[in-house]
Write the structure tokens for this entry.
Amino acid sequence: MASMYEANLVGKRQEILDKIFNVEAEETPCLSLLRKAGPPNALLATWVAEAYPDVASTGVLDGAAATNPGRVDRHLLQGCGQHFRQEWGVTTLTEVTNTAGTGRNEAGHQMAKAMLLLKRQMEQQILSTTECASESGATPWTMRGAFKWLLNTEQALYPVPSAIRPAAAALYAGAYASLDQDAFRTLMLTAAKAKKSTVSLIGMVGETLKTKIDDWTNIYPVASTTSQPRMQYTVAGNNVLKNFVDRLVFSAGSATLAVNYFIDRDTTSGAANTYADKNGLFLDMRMWELAYYKKPANTNLAPDGSGKKGFVDAIALLRCLNPLGQVKVEVSS
């Protein structure tokens, strides 16, 4: 009948799709890849590293006594642990109502999201330029970030001994526009020379740096000459354009790439720093480990009539077992 239309349907229920959508990615690849270690004994932890010296290969005169014993020196490294925490809570009325996407378990939903944020917090700190700090009353214990571990100069607190700091040539600090295949080949070669063998690295790279590396396989035509070949694309089935590089292989070693959105962020605000998406760390994962004083876990707080509350927390230490043989890209412009 013509008089029947949607607005006449009194009492019609509103429908909200029973899901919650979030555009944020959830992956924390570095945290997942790091080898997990048992708890250290103190928040200021110490471990030992070695670096093989160059040796002469001259012969020994017949009858000469062994009078010049050598040794492989050891070096002390130190790092600070850090307490990470995310709090969650829901009100009493929220607990007894039905919410789209969570049903009547809003507390469980908020607890799960707090755990995700805790992992992001840890990933961000691991891949930061933050220097370590000891508890001072005003400043909490702070874990040193990987960008700070890979320095050619002395760190401000508990510095890496000079004998096992990466060479400056393994740490790119130039302009983003100048980072090409040749520049990266030099980085890899320097890392291999420090290790005295080929390197196998995992690259945690910003999204813009990853797209730049994707284009290293392409050669663009130059209008003023005819010597440059045309750009070539790889086309798969159904006319899909494939233009990406996930692994770099050089004579000096290889680097497997993973885009990471938590590289070089401001650890106070969480915002990306100026060149965060153009930076990257190329790590020998055998030389890194995350030592847990306390693994990530939830603690419910005592009821106080206002609703369910709790927090998830973890206490951890990032150990760089030996900084040699690794590469860093931290562009200056």
User: Anything to note?
Assistant: The longest helix spans residues 106-126. Residues 16-21 have pLDDT under 50 and may be disordered. The chain has one domain: 25-51+74-329.
